[in-house]
Amino acid sequence: MLKVIEKDKDKPARLVQTMTHLVEISLIDLTGWNPRCEDSFKDEEFEELKQSMKENGFFKHEPLLVRPAVEAFRFQLIAGHRRLQAAKELGLTEVPVCIQDINDQDTKLLIFIDNFHRKDFSPLEEAQGMKMILDDGAITQTDLAKKMGKSQSYVANRLRLLEAPEELKEKIISREISPGHIMVLLPYVGYPVFDSIFESMKEQIDNNGSVSIRELEGEVIENGIDNCDSVLDLDRFPYDTRHVREFFDFRDCETCQHVVTRDFFGNS
């Protein structure tokens, strides 16, 4: 028993019951649109899936959803990437599938929604899937949010994860930090102080095993700023700050993209 996409654009995409067929695995191709990384085939849940399939056979599991490929008698996988991979690793040659004629946009959306509801779908994979769908220009962030049962701000914040540098992406993949940590750190990305803050955060994680968002916003960022040579702390400047320009040549700073100047009344 398998299902196809719900067409109501104001509801989350879902699947409906349809007929199944038996197809050779060698005839099923991947679309390249699945945002999940290969690590999703290495976790404990995947091993449990393989064990269940080994003991009970594929027919105890939901059939794959495929669509006809451009090449005759071949198919493209839409839903069931982990089930297909498990079947391959177990040496199966045929799997039950449901064949549906679905266009590219709905295929991408269905692949994404099929993964979104899985607990091991990482925030970064989620963001990559959203971008893939939105880049087609067929739907807006608001439309996508409705299909997911989320708010537009949820989609926008997930997409911002893609702006993070690779070292932050690695931390979120390893689950050492959360999307909330990324939101706190993004304003510092691109400035010299970011490297110092990142090192301060790594030290906190190494020493305590984790870092909370409150700790990051407080002592971690403060320590990073204190240890950064590119930061001038006027509170510790030994002279009258009203005369600070007498001690520094600000001509380079005025054209530097990393500087933010404030007058002494707090105005930018």
Written description of the protein model:
- By secondary structure, the protein is an alpha/beta fold.
- Among the domains are: 21-121, Conserved hypothetical protein from pyrococcus furiosus pfu- 392566-001, ParB domain, CATH 3.90.1530.10; 165-226.
- It has helices at residues 44-56, 81-89, 104-116, 123-134, 141-148, 152-160, 166-173, 179-185, 192-208, 213-226, and strands spanning 21-24, 28-29, 64-68, 75-79, 94-99.
- A five-stranded mixed beta sheet has the order 1-5-3-4-2.
- β3 and β4 form a beta hairpin.
- α4 packs across α6 and α9 (192-208) packs across α10 (213-226).
- The chain is elongated.
Fold blueprint:
Layout: E1 21-24, E2 28-29, H1 44-56, E3 64-68, E4 75-79, H2 81-89, E5 94-99, H3 104-116, H4 123-134, H5 141-148, H6 152-160, H7 166-173, H8 179-185, H9 192-208, H10 213-226
Parallel strand pairs: 2-4, 3-5
Antiparallel strand pairs: 1-5, 3-4
> Which consecutive residue ranges, at least 5 long each, have pLDDT under 50?
1-17, 260-268
Q: Give the total of beta strands.
A: 5
Proper CATH architecture of one domain: Alpha-Beta Complex
Radius of gyration: 25 Å
What is the helical fraction, as a range of percent? 40-55%
Tell me the strand percentage band: 5-15%
The 3D shape can be described as elongated
Largest sheet, spatial ordering of strands: 1-5-3-4-2
GO biological process, one term: chromosome segregation
InterPro entries: Chromosome_partition/occlusion, HTH_ParB/Spo0J, ParB/RepB/Spo0J, ParB/Sulfiredoxin_sf, ParB_N
Protein name: Nucleoid occlusion protein
GO molecular function, one term: DNA binding
